[in-house]
Predict the 3D structure of the following.
Amino acid sequence: MNFKVKKGKGVRGDITIPGDKSISHRSIMCASLAEGKSKIYGFLEGEDCLATKLAFQDMGVNFETNIDEITVHGSGLYGLKEPKKEINLGNSGTSIRLLSGILSGQKFSSTLKGDESLSSRPMDRIIEPLCLMGANIKSQNSGRPPLEIGKSDMLNSINYELPVASAQVKSCILFASLYSEGKTIVREKQTTRNHTEIMFKQFGVPLSIRDADYGRDIEMYTPSSLKSTEIDIPGDFSSAAFFILAALIIPNSNLTIKNVGMNETRTALLNAFQEMGAEIDITNKRGEFEPRADLNVKFSKLKGINLDTKLVPNLIDELPALFIAAAMSSGSTAVRDAEELRHKESDRLEAMGDVLGSLGVDFNMFQDGINISGVDDNKALSPFERVRINSFGDHRIAMSSAIACSLLDQDSLVINTDNVNTSFPTFLKIANQVGLDISLEKSS
């Protein structure tokens, strides 16, 4: 399917974004491994999170689903059953990396696979630490899925420094440590999103965090069990980012986004936008474990910045949106230390280079980043011809491109957008609700 995009009006009104994808994954995993009955509110019914839920159903976990509420009948740490077939996780990198940690400690064998995109993504970064823990995990595809995981009696604890800033690698090790002996320490030089650590504490896992000059250590002892609990999932900040972007760059915009997750390891984009001159008011802050707030965003005259490289790990998923904001800013924007973008659902640096080129934006590409020359004040984007953008099956490229195309006078097309359903199945509904004009069109 493709997005057909017409020029949008200023985005206005009040909206609520679906539940956070990262927290939704982890809530299903922890609740499935807990003793007794847990309740999850605000679960994201996107394809990626549903792939995680189906994987645990295939391993014998029972779920009751009602409107905006899931009851999970946990199997306990050692109550999962051997799946009868390979577990297909579709496009979900979070699912395959975190599940690899859990399944490495089971007394049965399993195989994890995914779609064409997931099958091209590197898994050596989790295979290495899991093997150090004694896991029997291997790839027959040069370090890419499918992953074959053998049964295990008990894993070893580990003291491991992350070679790349990755919440997925960190979380994979922490989940595997549920099945290890002794104390595991994961050391990260740059703080990455901490949803796993927060949720482990909610489920009673003995875990502590120690800050140091080089970064921080996450120390964890193996629990005897996970206790059941209730999880209330806030709106996904990464999804909200597209509507924050729309309100900032489309004239006459004044938009309120309610109940947005405000975990400080996820909201670096707000820091970047505010440095660019964005008018964003944060109100109604609340939340015991995962903080949340309401955001009021107004059209703003943005200016280019040199993005602080320390912010990059915590806005890696939002960089496509930042690139579009940079294109609509006065002056130039420089982004470095972002080579991780090349290992996402697509090579997001190259993909966004294609997008910017289609929109008539000047840029210089580097192996680890990009320089973007913003438009002058009061000057519109100037594509050389009718815009047709290939999103390369990447949901974040597709949505960022659709917002950018909403500025154009002529109709435009963003192709290969099916995977928007992996993270934001109601994107089109909300977009049209606030004043954009984006419709779905079958590929010819």
